Amino acid sequence: MYIIIKPEVAGGIGERTIGNLKARPPVVEKLNYEFFGWMGDDIVTSLLCFIMTERLKNKICEEELSGITFDDVLITKSQEFFTFFTNEELPKFYWAKINGVFGLDDFAIGSNLRLIISEKAYEILKLFNVNHAVFEVIEEI
User: Fold this and answer.
1) Of 108, 90, 95, which is closest to residue 5 (Cα–Cα)?
2) How far apart are the C-alpha atoms of 84 and 127, rounded to whole Å?
3) Are 33 and 68 spatial neighbours (Cβ–Cβ below 8 Å)?
4) What are the pLDDT digits (tens) for 60-71?
5) Could you give the CA distance from residue 85 to residue 37 in angstroms, rounded to a whole number?
6) pTM for the full model?
7) Residue 55 CB partners (closer than 8 Å, separation 6+)
8) What is the pLDDT of residue 25?
9) What does the radius of gyration of the chain's CA atoms come to, in whole angstroms?
């Protein structure tokens, strides 16, 4: 069983991102994620770029899930963030680079450019805050 996950969109690609964002899928060399708000989920997205909190990253590494590597991400906050979330501190986030093969790995990007996770990855994600993510089960590969 595999699951499509549509994580919380808490912001967008910041102006200090380096890469070709017009390509499909986008080619990103260095990621700047700019938060506009945040409802607390441990995984958030924008434009096929995913970032995860350090605690979720550590669990994924501990469980040796496949199809994912991690890199640094530059986190910035928009003026809206400062206006509406004046005292909100963000945890440490990491860029989750998805490089798996659907049907073989725990994380993959499907042909429809959606994030697809294995049942094992889903069980781990459920241990964290993913209250604003949408999950859709894929019965067949």
Assistant:
1) 108
2) 28
3) no
4) 999 999 999 999
5) 7
6) 0.94
7) 42, 91, 128
8) 82
9) 15
Q: Which long-range contacts (CB under 8 A, 24 or more apart) does 109-116 make?
A: 109/25, 109/48, 110/4, 113/24, 113/25, 113/48, 114/4, 114/5, 114/6, 115/4, 115/5, 115/6, 115/7, 115/45, 115/50, 116/2, 116/3, 116/4, 116/5
Dist CA 92 CA 90 (whole Å): 7
Give the number of residues written for the chain.
141
Kindly state the tokens that stand for 46: 């924008």
Whole-number mean pLDDT of the chain?
Answer: 95
Residue 49 to residues 36, 62, 65, 72: CA-CA distances in angstroms?
15, 22, 18, 12
Q: Which of 115, 106, 109, 120 is nearest to 135 (CA)?
A: 115
Q: Are 31 and 52 in contact (CB under 8 A)?
A: no
